[in-house]
Specification:
The complex is a heterodimer. Chain A is built from 6 helices and 15 strands. Chain A is α/β, with parallel strands linked by helices. In chain A, strand 9 (140-150) and strand 10 (153-160) form a beta hairpin. Chain A has one domain: Rossmann fold, CATH 3.40.50. Chain A has helices at 37-51, 71-80, 95-105, 128-136, 190-196, 237-244, and strands spanning 2-6, 9-11, 19-20, 25-26, 33-35, 59-65, 84-88, 113-117, 140-150, 153-160, 163-168, 173-177, 201-204, 213-219, 228-229. Chain A is globular and about 65 Å long. Chain B has 2 domains: 2-182, 3-Layer(aba) Sandwich (Rossmann fold), CATH 3.40.50.620; 204-322, TPP-binding domain (Rossmann fold). Chain B is elongated and about 60 Å long. In chain B, the strands form 3 sheets. A 7-stranded parallel beta sheet of chain B has the order 5-9-4-1-2-3-10, sandwiched between helices. Chain B has a 5-stranded parallel beta sheet with strand order 13-12-14-15-16. Chain B is built from 9 helices and 16 strands. By secondary structure, chain B is an alpha/beta fold. The chains are: A alpha/beta, B alpha/beta. Chains A and B meet through helix 3, helix 4, strand 9, strand 10 and strand 11 of A and helix 3, helix 4, strand 5, strand 7 and strand 8 of B. Strand 11 of chain A pairs antiparallel with strand 11 of chain B, so a sheet runs across the interface.
Chain lengths: 249, 323
């Protein structure tokens, strides 16, 4: 069994974002780039599954659509424990572009389980996994919070509004995973960092794909009004303000 | 031409989220000068279906089939795509909730339609078609042009007022059948929370952080939530410590919510936490550290210890409620 984990390269979640060129472009000065947090959890789960030999996972591969500048992030995934990597050499214009490029590669490379994070922390699209499944004409399961292999069959738990469902789905499939899929992201050890240097990254040249969407410009959120303080000794006054001034209940 | 909207049902009933979607779709339809058509999947009776008309749907297509009891991404996508084609939809609207996240991207590929997810306002313009959406987890917003003839929008929850605009409506039972070969997701067990207000549905949320100090101190917070009809939530360290369940974690990697009122109690307001709650209409901060970043996001604040302040709030709320 082979697992593929799709990863995005995103600014560290503590980044204070700024935009340049008439608010059209992200100012990348000083930005620390990391594996998208949900993708990192997906990778961790894939490696946990591989660790238990009875699951029969042979390899864990990571895939990324992006320029060579993303290679440190790909190497980090290899250092954490992925066996090898795919990179499609293009700066994708939108999520559709990413999914289409990956689908093209997956015409020749075959995987049984494809994991994607629920969203990337930059464009918050929640789209690549579902798109990829539709391109591949295979099932998808979204909001997956646990994934196990039992007797060669995949047992999944997905979050629904107000609860959880347990389900099974035949391979190959795409699982779009969220919080809960793995407890803590795995951290690269020194041995892993050394090993990552020589692990293969297969670079594919992109297909010509038209973009469906375009970001015209970015805006910063409007500053909120200054905080109105209530004295701690007189905390009950807060309830009056919420009821009679903000009128929220 | 039409705007097609997919209002989901829960055990045959619609909820506020469904009506938000239909209200939004009918306003977009108005902007485009076309009809709003709703497609419902699963067993929903006529009385319930007709509720959608109050929010501006002028045609309701119901696909009711015994094999559509639980969500199958691929099968549901095929059905919605069929309807979209049959009504010549130029815009398809879904929620940016669990179900919308499962279906919208597949539909995008199937209909060759550009998608913008987590949209929180009506389109900025319809020609070109530009929408306004959250990016970088609420740290910024983007104006995004969708360039394809068919457009898909997923609407952020609690971002659009439910507005009544009753229309005469036609309810049609669709003859469409799901492709049995596509129904490959086999649900074996469903566990539902009962009697608990869902975090993503709640108008008021009472949330606690590390400043609550231990799992044993949650009593007054839960009591306050009860008095307010609010859902309870927590920050990441709290769920990581196991003081509260993981499904209560709000923040960038947990639940992203947009209630009318959010109480951040003993939460310092790390940027990742703010990313999950910044769309709240009012934020109340209670924290011992007067320099905590949460006070910059809040409209009302109390500097002080949660264990001393919560009982006072509970007492005052009881007094208010008893009147």
């Amino acid at each position: 069994m082979k697992i593929l984990v799709c990863i995005s390269n995103v600014p560290d979640t503590t980044t204070k974002v700024k935009f340049i060129d008439d608010q059209k472009k992200l100012d990348v000065t000083g930005i620390q780039w990391v594996i998208n947090p949900w993708d990192e959890l997906a990778l961790t789960r894939a490696l946990e599954l591989k660790d238990d030999a009875s699951n029969g996972v042979q390899t864990v591969t990571v895939a990324h659509v992006g320029l060579v500048s993303a290679e440190p992030t790909i190497r980090k995934a290899l250092a954490i424990g992925a066996d090898d990597a795919i990179r499609v050499n293009t700066d994708p214009a939108d999520a559709y572009g990413i999914a289409a490029q990956l689908a093209e590669v997956l015409k020749t490379e075959k995987y049984d389980i494809i994991l994607c994070g629920i969203e990337s922390s930059d464009h918050n699209g929640s789209t690549v996994g579902g798109m990829l499944a539709e391109f591949l004409d295979c099932p998808s399961v979204t909001c997956v919070s646990s994934l196990n292999i039992e007797g060669g069959q995949t047992v999944i738990s997905r979050e629904i509004d107000g609860g959880k469902e347990s389900l099974t789905v035949p391979m190959p499939f795409v699982a779009v995973v969220q919080k809960g899929i793995a407890k803590e992201p795995r951290i690269a050890a020194m041995r892993g960092i050394m090993a990552a240097r020589t692990k293969p990254i297969r670079v594919y040249e992109p297909q010509a794909i038209e973009n469906f969407t375009e970001v015209l410009n970015y805006e910063m959120p409007k500053p909120r009004a200054a905080c109105k303080y209530v004295d701690a000794e007189n905390a009950g006054q807060l309830i009056d303000l919420l009821q009679n001034e903000a009128r929220v209940f | 031409m039409a705007v097609l909207v997919y209002p989901e049902n829960w055990d045959g009933k619609f909820k506020k989220l469904s009506f938000e979607l239909v209200s939004y779709a009918s306003k977009v339809a108005e902007m485009l000068g076309v009809q709003a058509v709703a497609v419902s999947i699963g067993s929903v009776d006529e009385g319930e279906l007709s509720k959608l008309a109050a929010y501006g749907a002028s045609r309701i297509i119901s696909i009711d089939n015994g094999s559509l009891k639980s969500l199958d991404d691929q099968a549901y996508t095929s059905l919605i795509a069929e309807v979209a084609k049959s009504v010549s939809a130029s815009v398809v609207v879904l929620s940016n909730n669990n179900t919308g996240k499962a279906l919208a991207p597949r539909l995008s590929v199937k209909l060759k339609a550009g998608i913008a997810s987590g949209v929180s306002r009506l389109p900025v313009s319809t020609s070109p078609f530009v929408v306004y959406k959250k990016v970088y987890s609420g740290k910024a917003f983007a104006n995004v042009e969708i360039k394809t003839p068919v457009k898909i929008i997923t609407l952020a929850q609690n971002s659009f007022e439910v507005t009544e605009s009753p229309k005469p409506v036609a309810i049609e039972k669709s003859a469409l059948q799901p492709d049995q070969n596509l129904l490959r997701t086999k649900v074996t067990d469903v566990q539902k929370q009962t009697g608990k207000i869902l975090l993503t549905d709640a108008d008021i949320v009472v949330s606690g952080g590390r400043g609550m100090r231990s799992a044993d101190n949650w009593g007054p917070l839960v009591e306050m939530a009860g008095l307010l009809g609010a859902a309870t939530a927590c920050s990441r360290p709290v769920s990581d410590e196991g003081w509260r369940p993981h499904d209560e974690h709000t923040g960038q990697t947990g639940k992203i919510i947009a209630p009318n009122l959010y109480f951040a109690i003993g939460i310092s307001g790390a940027i990742q936490h703010l990313a999950g709650i910044s769309s709240s209409k009012y934020i109340v901060a209670i924290n011992t550290d007067k320099d905590a970043p949460i006070f910059e996001a809040a409209q009302y604040g109390i500097v002080g210890d949660a264990s001393k302040i919560l009982p006072k709030l509970v007492e005052k709320l009881r007094e208010v409620k008893s009147k």
